[in-house]
Amino acid sequence: MLQNTRADRTGDVLAAVSQSGPTVSFFDAASDRLLGSVEVLAEPHEICFDPARRLLWCTNTYQAGYYRANSGRRSQLTVIDPDARRIVEVVDIAPEVGPHGLSLDAERGRLYVSVEGAEGAEGAEGGGGVVIIDTASRRPIGRIDTGAFGPHWFVASPDGTRGYASNKEAPFVSVLDLVAGELIDRIEVPGGEGLAVSADGSRVYVAAPHAGGFNGGGPDATPGIRVIDTELRRVIDVLATDNVVVPVHLTATGKVLAGELRTAPAPATGTDPSGRASRPVQAPGRLTVFSADTHKRLGDIEIGRFPLTITSSPDGALAYAAGVIDSTVDVIDLESLQRLARIELPKLADAGAHGLAYIPKAA
């Protein structure tokens, strides 16, 4: 079984981002051999493959640093030819800044990009939005406000009519009408991280609570994945986990993949004048698998520290999990829940592997 998951992947490619590289690297999906890398602007985060045009989109989010601890927010997207492994164009969406999440509607030629907000639009009550890019012209053609600062992740429904943005600093998922171009609802969750939508559009799976105390405190709810009924527009179930989840991914075979952040006590570093205990350090993460149909927990496996992105092969047989601290991508057989390989990415600072995209070979 383990060999069969890799045997027919010759010509397929895994693209992986190194945040501090700053690079997008390409690996043979059958052998994990490095095929080449493309240097990009600082702080690349997420990537998205457009199969219709065979182009890879990459968000460049900050000048340096990370969310709420950066030296300035960028406004660029890098467009890459993954076959030639070269940059096609750098698209500037200023005045919008902090692009991060990507969701493609290939049928309608639309790419949706979540942005933290325009310069000067700070605060938890607004500023954030979703920029709409026409994939033919590679230019912005619209923007929809999400009603909160810092929407980090976004998914469009398969029929292209609805969009869902999770907000790191607001206790709701924003529901967008993609046809009318407006915010139409807020679904209550205790802060949100990654999210995924089912193939029929009836369910949205969102990681909550958020992984940081951006509202003045840490997570205050059971960690896991909130299951949203998109017709009722409310949470109908919680897939509970032992730790806070950041990335969420739904495979073609109906498995919900959750990347758990785990911590361990830090060693003593001397006297703390405040009397507070030392802050915990990141331990190896965990990939936890659920059935999308039954919501049953199917198992878990240890992965790299601080998982930020998870994706899967088109047939749903393999999972790929990026751990930003270790700067590794774990290749997991989802039937046996065994690790087949660990790919190492370059990093120049404390932030490495981030965005992932699976690129099938050209027809």
TrEMBL record:
Stated name of the protein: Surface layer protein
Q: Which organism is it from?
A: Catenulispora pinistramenti
